[in-house]
Amino acid sequence: MSESDTPTPTVDHPRAHWRACLKITFCLLAVWFVVSFGAAILLRDWCDATLPKIGNAPFGFWMAQQGSIICFVLILILYARLMNQLDAKHGYSEE
């Protein structure tokens, strides 16, 4: 089978791809906001009082210092995987 015989993926509805990109982006931004602003700032006192300690640090303090950074890195990894799947679904994959 030569290169000319392999089917090329067709781009499937750029607007649908764009809407799906925005949906993924806004959902992950909402998660990031809740984790970084909510758990680390707004709900810190509640987290300290009700949730278990991480090591010797209260949970709210730990989320403000370490947890939000770890969650951010996990969100970046999830974003890359979701966008690669979305690109492949709509014919924009780089492979």
Topology:
Layout: H1 14-42, H2 44-50, H3 59-90
What does this structure look like?
The chain is mostly helical and 95 residues long. It has one domain (28-95). The protein is built from three helices and no strands. It has helices spanning 14-42, 44-50, 59-90.
Number of helices: 3
Number of strands: 0
Q: Give the mean pLDDT.
A: 84
Which oligomeric form is depicted? single chain
- Count of distinct structural domains: 1
State the secondary-structure class.
mainly alpha
**SSE pattern, N- to C-terminal:** HHH
Give the gist of this structure.
This protein is mostly helical and 95 residues long. It is built from three helices and no strands.
Keywords:
mainly alpha; 95 residues; 0% strand; elongated
